[in-house]
Amino acid sequence: MLRFGVNYTPSRGWFHHWLDFDLDDVRRDLDDIAGLGLDHIRVFPLWPLFQPNRSLIRPRAVEQLLALADAAAERGLDLNVDGLQGHLSSFDFLPSWTATWHRRNLFTDPEVVEGQAAYLRTLAEALAGRRNFLGMTLGNEINQFSDRPHPDPDRAGEAEIDAWLRRMLAACEEGAPGRAHLHAEYDACWYQDGHPFTPRQAATLGAMTAVHSWVFNGTAQRHGPTGTATEQHAAYLTELSKAWATDPARPVWLQEVGAPAPHVPADGAAAFTEATVAATLDCEHVWGVTWWCSHDVDRALADFPELEYDLGLFTTDRKRKPAAEALARAAERAPEAAPPPRTTALVLDVGEPGPADSAPERSVCAPGGSFFEAWAALAADGVRPAVVLASRAADAAHLAARGITETVHPREVPQPAARTTQETHPHA
Question: Which InterPro entries match (predicted)?
Fold first, then answer.
């Protein structure tokens, strides 16, 4: 069954609501969400508020999270909980025991790693008794702390990140065995050469693969708000992720996607929503779609990037937007039958095979890259392209397991000129 949900952003106080937690406000927000016919939410505790000291995980904060979970259950909503927040809408939230005089690497310092593991295990264990608890996500796009363009990155190598991911996932499993625990990165893991979080990690570690699709990454600037590459960006990431998966049936969760203005104009948000969801559901093994986000950010709050204020399906006074209606229709009309396999695969060469499968030339997958533009051109011509690594393109068993009967190389695909060449925006 396809799942449809939303990333829960409180209508009052944004994520600072944990400082003045009001369950009645939460209930009203969840009523909005349930009224759309959605079935789950993704929830964001703020790490410094829940674990202000390495050896203190605040019981009252955990109780508030459980109260939110119970309120969701009363409305038929399941929930996934992100642990290490981490990074949200351009702001970093790190506990003081990792910063300034206590500055320690988030991914490699043994005490920090064990503190994080204890925190994730504690949240998972507290939630394990709730039937509506889906599982933990380690953190929201925590890979942004590891590399440029972050102004003060916590540098780590691929092997160190691999060990960190496995330790954090194990801690979640210790706390809540058998739930769907996973990790999620922003698109540097797919697009940025040398980034220590890799496509292989995203596509093989954890219960499923999460993709976050944001078209302000150069896609909408290059192809326009209604271009095929823009409307199918989420589907592209879904198919791209499958190239590294060792399980052909591994679920893929479109965990974040939104319609950011001005790259997608406000009067085009509903059409973008419909097109994005339709294209994603045309991919096999999609677990679900979780829109960013439930409610707008109150403009009384300062210093957010402009595009962050109006990403909600609801205004701050809980009025539905056209995109909300579009998502509700998509959830109501979601097909019960799985889409057919994608029989044509575009061959991806990212410098593999390598000793660590690190995709050293993955920038060809980014907007403007030769592989990205070839995939978009095929999609614009009505092809439903899958993606296969060059190292697997001659593996008959692998192709057969995925239903692939034809392979095409990017050099064989005519590519039209890009619509625009505007400057790309960094990830917010």
Answer: GH (IPR017853)
